[in-house]
Design goal:
Shape: globular
Mean pLDDT: 80
Low-confidence stretches: none
Helix content: 40-55%
Strand content: under 5%
Number of helices: 4
Structural class: mainly alpha
Distance between the termini: 55 Å
Number of strands: 0
Number of domains: 1
Length: about 120
């Protein structure tokens, strides 16, 4: 029983680490104007979070698109990739996430976004 409890605790720590790598916040709902995680304005910050998001989605059972490994096999951190390969990979991840959740939950999920001040 102690081994199961230890394994559960380790799984929880790994889960929290992965989620913090994607969203970069610890609250249930982040402040809407924060610029971090997969809702970051800067490509390099967003790309790092997207790699964590990819790691989470990679464990999901549905079939992966052809460019699935692009952002992991290639280094897309340079700004020149933001509007080309990086944008395609980011869109593919978002589409996979939405379709996967819709297939399981039968409703569209919410996507993280950043509210712009007026």
């Amino acid at each position: 029983m102690a081994e199961l409890d230890a394994a559960r605790a380790q799984h929880r720590r790994n889960h929290i680490t992965l989620m913090n790598g994607i969203f970069f916040y610890h609250d249930i709902v982040p402040h809407p104007n924060h610029d971090f995680g997969i809702a970051a304005m800067g490509w390099n910050d967003r790309y790092n979070a997207l790699k964590h998001f990819w790691a989470l989605l990679n464990t999901w059972p549905l079939q992966k698109p052809g460019i699935w490994r692009r952002g992991v096999d290639m280094d897309l951190s340079h700004k020149r990739f933001e509007m080309t390969e990086g944008a395609q990979w980011e869109r593919m991840l978002a589409e996979y996430y939405v379709q996967s959740l819709f297939s399981v939950l039968k409703h569209a999920p919410s996507l993280p976004c950043r509210l712009h001040s007026a």
